[in-house]
């Protein structure tokens, strides 16, 4: 009798322990841990974690070591936490020369060449007002010049100033090239001039590619130079009879970039062969000496150190209490270059691709109003799994209860936010995917995106929401189903 009483007591203690353990993982995601890790990863020590640099590799090594200390197993190549890939860079050479009339322009100080090219241009300049109505015979074989104009494109007041110029160039470059121009010369208006210092710093980096990129034709044009001069040159460019004489050269380099990959094995013998993938990127924009800005290090605290440390916290929770399915954690490299790390992993996964039941991606989860957030992949045509979305919405209703902004998920939204983070390559592979975010803010891609500006309490709630969603998927009887006929608009 004493034996059975003792056995009952042990069983009761175990039952209580299990019940407590079931609550433990969400509590294991601690605000203090997130704050500590965030201030470390977004510190000047990592110099902004620019893709293809030693700083990105240094940050990746730190993440891998933290994953190891959290009890996560390596899941990269050859039994390591790492999956390396080659990043190919092409940029305008400093040997390039640009002259309008008798005036020579200094590269990156007076003039930006928008994308790499090889070209020799010696042709008259024709200034135009409206690219849509100009006749082909007016500009064919000539250099067409125009001031930045929002005519026919998204109202620039609705977007971030430094993105405005990109929208304008994208809107007009191909249309003008189709009319046979030799080169395109943009002149700043007031809004584009605000973006000049930033674009000069970004354009001198050049363009980047990897094998199998989602964006194989990132260049707008092929060897038709797109040149941008500052507003003060408007009078010179408009003067009749001016010519552009330019020699444009490019040069190329290859650098290593890396994904950090770790896992927690599931407890169910069969379901453990399936994976819930938690996704984020660890890179940012590095060191940029931007005109008029004192701080040169782009620490990227919100973008995307917040999610990088969130994945560490979620990993600790899964290590404490694994789900039935395995949890896979991928800190993608080179996202800022063009989603390259996620593109590479989606094409070369270290686990069978068919074993990936869902991707829970995060990008920027620590800013804006404390009670608001966004979940993308909810509105068609971006909705690719109602099952997955239902779980995410249920977990939000249970816990953080964020008011969800759905505008940024619409196909009509001018920023195309759905296509600008690491869930996209997986969705293209027909893997159920959602995207957690608290959306852009005035410090986005500026040196002001520092750890001290992050709402740590909100970051904690967002992390717990991502974790709860993934834990529910890991323990569901069935994997989330893909929407029949799912097809993105681009």
UniProtKB/TrEMBL annotation:
Keywords: Signal
InterPro entries: M28_fam, Peptidase_M28
Organism ancestry: Bacteria, Pseudomonadati, Bacteroidota, Chitinophagia, Chitinophagales
Presence of the UniProt keyword Transmembrane in the record: no
Signal peptide: 1-19
Identification of the protein by name: M28 family peptidase
The UniProt record lists the keyword Signal: yes
Peptidase M28 domain residues: 259-467
Alphabetized PANTHER family for the sequence: METALLOPEPTIDASE M28 FAMILY MEMBER (PTHR12147), PEPTIDASE M28 DOMAIN-CONTAINING PROTEIN (PTHR12147:SF26)
Transmembrane spans: none
């Amino acid at each position: 009798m004493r034996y059975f009483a003792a056995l009952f007591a042990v069983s009761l203690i175990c039952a209580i322990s299990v019940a407590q353990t079931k609550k433990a993982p969400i509590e294991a995601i601690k605000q203090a841990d997130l704050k500590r890790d965030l201030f470390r990863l977004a510190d000047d020590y990592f110099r902004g974690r620019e893709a293809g640099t030693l700083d990105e590799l240094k940050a990746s090594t730190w993440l891998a070591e933290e994953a190891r200390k959290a009890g996560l197993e390596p899941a990269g190549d050859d039994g390591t936490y790492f999956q390396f890939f080659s990043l190919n860079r092409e940029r305008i050479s400093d040997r390039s020369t640009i002259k309008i009339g008798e005036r020579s322009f200094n590269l990156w100080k007076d003039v930006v060449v928008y994308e790499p090219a090889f070209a020799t241009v010696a042709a008259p300049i024709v200034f135009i007002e409206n690219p849509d109505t100009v006749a082909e015979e007016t500009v064919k074989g000539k250099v067409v010049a125009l001031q930045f104009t929002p005519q026919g494109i998204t109202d620039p007041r609705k977007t971030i100033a430094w993105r405005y110029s990109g929208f304008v160039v994208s809107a007009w470059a191909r249309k003008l090239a189709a009319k046979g121009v030799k080169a395109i010369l943009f002149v700043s208006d007031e809004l584009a001039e605000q973006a000049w210092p930033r674009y000069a710093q970004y354009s001198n980096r050049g363009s980047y590619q990897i094998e199998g990129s989602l964006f194989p034709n990132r260049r707008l044009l092929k060897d038709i130079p797109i040149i941008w001069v500052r507003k003060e040159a408007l009078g010179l460019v408009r003067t009749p009879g001016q010519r552009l004489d330019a020699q444009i050269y490019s040069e190329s380099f290859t650098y290593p970039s890396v994904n950090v990959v770790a896992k927690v094995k599931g407890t169910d013998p069969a379901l453990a062969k399936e994976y819930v993938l938690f996704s984020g990127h660890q890179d940012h924009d590095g060191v940029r000496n931007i005109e008029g800005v004192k701080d040169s290090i782009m620490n990227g605290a919100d973008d995307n150190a917040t999610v990088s440390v969130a994945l560490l916290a979620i990993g600790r929770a899964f290590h404490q209490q694994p789900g039935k399915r395995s949890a896979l954690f991928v800190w993608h490299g080179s996202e800022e270059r063009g989603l390259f790390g996620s593109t590479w992993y989606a094409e070369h996964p270290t686990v069978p691709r068919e074993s990936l039941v869902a991707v829970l991606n995060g990008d920027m989860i620590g800013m804006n109003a404390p009670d608001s957030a966004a979940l993308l992949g909810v509105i068609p045509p971006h909705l690719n799994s109602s099952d997955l979305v239902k779980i995410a919405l249920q977990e939000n209703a249970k816990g953080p209860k964020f008011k969800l902004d759905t505008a940024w998920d619409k196909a009509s939204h001018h920023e195309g936010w759905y296509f600008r983070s690491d869930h996209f390559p997986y969705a293209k592979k027909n893997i159920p995917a959602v995207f957690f975010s608290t959306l852009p803010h005035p410090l986005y891609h500026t040196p002001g995106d520092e750890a001290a500006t992050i709402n740590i309490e909100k970051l904690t709630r967002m992390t717990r929401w991502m974790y709860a969603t993934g834990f529910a998927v890991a323990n569901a009887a069935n994997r989330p189903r893909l929407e029949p006929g799912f097809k993105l608009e681009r």
